[in-house]
Amino acid sequence: MASTQRLTERETSDEMEKKGSQAMGPAFMAAAASVGLSWYYFFARGDKERGLFVGLWPPTILAFASYFNQRKMRRQIDMLAKPASSIKNTLESMMSK
After folding, report:
1. pLDDT grade, residue 11 (50/70/90)?
2. What is the rounded CA–CA span in Å between residue 23 and residue 65?
3. 35, 84, 91, 97 - which has most CB atoms within 10 Å?
4. How does residue 96 score in pLDDT terms, banded at 50, 70 and 90?
């Protein structure tokens, strides 16, 4: 039983890493695009105020992405911390496969 639980925890941690990298992908792309747009406004168009305004977007985008990622991880940790629910989930996952 203990080895099964360790295996399930390992699988869960692998799934969390995959989901985390997938969730952060669009956020990183949006942040990089925002930096590029900021440089465009600041240097190419000469609109320094707009360039600075758009340049403030990447930290905000990444902060929101980090917050939502931490929320997902917290929910999964809470689910694993409750012994009855983790055993129930383990049995359900074993029965469904």
Report:
1. low
2. 7
3. 35
4. confident
